[in-house]
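Operator note (shift B, R.M.): manual run for MFS transporter requested after the automated queue skipped it. Running by hand, logging everything below so the morning shift can see what happened. Input copied straight from the record, untouched. If output looks odd, do not overwrite the archive copy; leave it for review.
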Amino acid sequence: MIIKEKFSLLPISSLFFAIGFLAIGYGMILTFIGVHLKETGSSNIAIGLINASFFLGAIGSSIFSQKIISSVGHIRSFATFASIMIIGFLGHSLYFNELFWAILRLLSGFAYYGLLIILESWLNEKSSPSHRGKILAIYTIIFYLSTAIGQLLLNIGDQSGSIFFVIGSILVLFSVIFISMTKIKEPILEPFERYSLPKIFSIAPLALASSFIGGFFVGGFFTMIPVFIVETFGSIQTVSIFMTITIIGALLSQWPIGILSDRLGRRRMIAFSGFFIAIVSIGFLLLAYDEKSFYILGALLGVGIFCLYPLAVARANDVVDENKNIIEISRTLLFAYGLGSFAAPLIIGAGTYLFDDFIFISFLTLSILLGFYALSRERVPDENMSVFVNIPSISGAESASLDPRGEET
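Run finished. Output pasted below as returned.
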């Protein structure tokens, strides 16, 4: 007789509440920084450098934060990273200097991704192999919805913007309350095996390229599209509505795209996504100054850019053999995704000196290249394909351990 293990959210509800509050604050501040800098007269290059610092901190966190967590424990580490993040938020409201803000963004990125690693490793500790997919799906839904709520909060505030940094700090503190009261056993973090990008490129080149370009799109979306909207429409309300619509479009498209990719294959879906983003980018270039069209194009953009990283991980699962560690490969893909997010504000910020709508020109160019590159790759036989799994657009290094496909490998 087979006894089915019961699935209950109650033991890990505190983790989901913490994730929700963090994502609301993260989404609000990440979008607001570029808007506020533009309103204060900063150049697009300076805005790109400051926003890129956040993702540089994220890359550093994926390398170094595990040692901190392993040495002092999850709860102490969570309190430490949360404190650093709050210091970063409140520091913005104390003194404005572009270099100082870049340092604060670096610290915030390091702390935020450290917090994600802690929460994801805890979720993994409480996940049985049979329930891991459900927990990852709930994590994905909470992340997208919370990030969308963060965009709506942009509609409140004063001209100075100080209230946003205060609200962001309060939200992080709420997450600390839930974690401080948790009774969940602290897991032991296994050392990360270091994979080189050239090695992963030789194993799964399309997956690596899709991860980097997907990171470029999402990083550019959060950091530089708000700047373009302020330049074009001069309204933070337009920023708020556009960002919310795009993120909701991303959430609603995850499952249909997953079903299609299981039927048609990742190669075709990555190619389709690339060409779809190219068409949407052309739409932005032609209709960017019409507000209603801009919102519709935003929803379509969310459908295209947020699915690339999950498709990349699925492609890697399809092509690696059983002797490879898919968890470590997934972490390397996430690292490439972070590099793309880091590169986006730097390249787009500099490119706007050539063209005002350079962000959509860069999206158009990269998406076409990705589409044709995907079609040039070898098709994976149906019997070798894994099952698509939805993954949050912003994940920590431990999200790979939550992927149920890792157990199968």
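Quick read of the result: The chain has two domains: 12-182, 195-384. The chain is about 75% helix and 0% strand.
Leaving this for review. - R.M.
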